[in-house]
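User: Predict the structure for this protein chain, please.
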Amino acid sequence: MLSTARSKSRISFACVAALTGVFAARISLAVEPPNPKDLTQGNWALQLDKSKFCNPSQAPQQSLRSIVDEGYGLISVHWTGVSASGKPMDIHYVYAYDGRKFPVGEYSPNRNLATKEAITYHLINPHRVEFQHWDRNDNKTQDLVREVSDDGQTMTQTTRLSTRPGCTDVQVFARQ
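Assistant: Here is the predicted structure, written as structure tokens:
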């Protein structure tokens, strides 16, 4: 009888230890956001299996974003990955949360493309950034929202194109 009680006690202890280990591992896997005032900052990887594209053939094969506070009120983005056609992507841009229009384009050491659009950014709260794309004629072409989950580990970006009413791309990113 005493042996059975000790066995149950050992099994209970082993189960508690295992669950504690799993819980600790889960906590250690969470990446701390670099800026509590803007949770979109950090390194992000697109989760294709959780994302939805109006035109799936246009979905990138891989998409990584590094969003960094550069100081002086400027945020920079370095967007890399592989396009739907299999070509490497290497895009850089900067912005501020002051509503001014910032040029957007594909800037890299090997290419100097003319800017076709500008973007305005607004930090709504630490979890939410709203931004709009504008063409050269000052017409809005896109409405976008980046929203970070309460635990800070998932960022969802929704895109609504003015030319495709009723269609919304939803990109889901995991913090790296």
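Residues 42-175 form a domain with the Lipocalin fold (CATH 2.40.128.20).
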